[in-house]
Amino acid sequence: MELDFTRPVTHTGYKDAEKLKKHYHRVEKKIIEKPGNLRKDIDILDADKADYKKNWYADDNFFNMPIEGNITPFLGGGISLFLVVSGLFSDDTFDGFGLYAYILCCISLAFFTIYYFTKPKKENILNRKDGLITMTGVLWKKNITIPFKECLFVYSTGGEDGTSAYNLQAMRPSKSKFGTLTIFTVGQGDCYKDMSFICWYMDKNRPLPPGTAFDAYRDRDYERRKAAGFPRPLYPSNIATPEATKEQQAERKRIGGW
Length: 258
Prior knowledge:
elongated, alpha+beta, 3-stranded antiparallel sheet
């Protein structure tokens, strides 16, 4: 059954877009690698994988990614709970600074508990049909939907040892000059591979990316692009993007010239 992940646009552009475009961690919208170098534990483009069927949705209109929305309250709440329980067995907990620290841990535990039960639904969605991208909001704020062509991306720096570095992050539009960032990985392994896949998928003038998850929709997508006269791709690439068959490739070259 095909699903509809259309979400209303909530934002258009950024407060200081030109300055943000100069961000030294900027990841530009380019296709520089072919999708397929995926994490070994999950192949999001393989429709036969159980993990794909359970957690991901992909067709020629929408690509929906599962969000680990419980990580923040579980991690923060778990640490807070450990500190609260540990404090009960310490002789210094209720003396001087220890008391203030213990109260802070209790407040933290209450915060993460309330957040877990009241947080809004978190979504990361690529809407190829309408050219939109949906990303999560901060804590209780609602999700953000913005035109993909206006959305800016950067990569994470990670810790001192490089852990969690080069993850793709989307910039949330906000009233602030700097905004906030949210992880927007799609299982390709690093920010440049993720960006390549996202651009390939969101470029509705190109054939769908490689992967059996899209095979059922390739002919329909081909006919749509053919009816439009095979317009040229929207985003630059040094990767060949052929049609599913040689006959379709010849037809595209004849009508679209590329």
